[in-house]
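Need tokens for this chain, all 250 residues.
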Amino acid sequence: MVYSIEDAVRMASETEGDLVFVAVGFETTAPSTCVPLQKELPENFSIYSCHRICPPILKTIFDMGETKVQGMIEPGHVAVITGTKMFEPLAKEYSMPQVVAGFEPLDILMACYMLCKQIEEGRCEVENEYTRLVRPEGNPKALKLMDITYDKVDKAWRGFPVIGKSALALKSKYESHDATKVHQDILSGAPEVEAEARGCRCGEVLRGLIRSEECPMFGRACKPMSPSGPCMVSAEGSCNIAYRFGKMRV
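Here are the structure tokens for all 250 residues:
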């Protein structure tokens, strides 16, 4: 386990074997992956980019027409990088009230209040509760760094179809440190893996169609110590939270 990509670069410089850094996260963590690529890297170091971006998945959720969302609390850590302007097309196109919020309990409570106020007053805006860190323009340096490092590519999402231009792949000029190119022979032989365990309804939970407790595996085959899907794997996952703090225990 490493705390940053710099730790991984250092480890690669101290070993003779190949080291692959699996880069995960949304716009929050994508800029940090870019930084070492602007410097000289060990030849045995490569990056497997699993970065995704928010706008395409949000648009897909609305276009699919499955959910009955009345308002959205948008992620403050993403907006620190992107700014609040990124969410404005959703407000205009889908008449969706939104509040960018931080993660403290008071942040969430205030975001809920601000959303209720928008709905009550018939407004559809992007309001910023997280003003102590988020600016309308975001972080220009980080955005520029992402722009020169990544290409937006199509990607399949758990519980969703393939979503156009929703993931970030390293540009061709970085192919000497792109794990998908460096280790192409190994990856081409990787077996196909089912996205969901049989019976797991994580995709529907993620799309907001069912509650965690409605999945037949919840609390039975699927628990925090023996998870079947990502909603239970992560301590931030809805199933994990529902199991630990919900009233229903099976």
